[in-house]
Each structure stands twice: as structure tokens, then as C-alpha cells.
UniProtKB/TrEMBL annotation:
Protein name: Uncharacterized protein
Domain of life of the native organism: Bacteria
């Protein structure tokens, strides 16, 4: 594996991004559930805003 290979350099970053995206999704679901009791519309919009990035 050469250090100049774009794929070799990109793989760890892609894994970190995927892991971070999973954590954000779980956190967003928890926040949406917490807010849905009093503000379902706000939670829904907040979740969509995060998912759109």
C-alpha cells in the first residue's frame, strides 16, 4: 500500500465519517423523542435539518 494512494488515505476518514454519522443519527433520534412530547413539529424540523447537514 503506497502512501500516495488516494484510496489508502481516504479509507480511515470515510470510516470515521460513517461512525460519526451513526452517532449523530442516534443522538438525533433521542432528541426527537424527547422533544416530540411537547413540540413534535419542532423536533421533526430539527431532525430534518440535521439529516440534511
Amino acid at each position: 500500500m503506497r502512501s500516495s494512494s488516494p484510496r489508502a488515505q481516504r479509507t480511515p476518514d470515510a470510516g470515521a465519517d460513517l461512525r460519526q454519522a451513526g452517532e449523530v443519527l442516534l443522538w438525533t433520534e433521542a432528541v426527537a423523542c424527547a422533544f416530540s412530547f411537547g413540540h413534535p413539529r419542532m423536533a421533526f424540523n430539527f431532525r430534518n435539518a440535521l439529516l440534511r447537514g
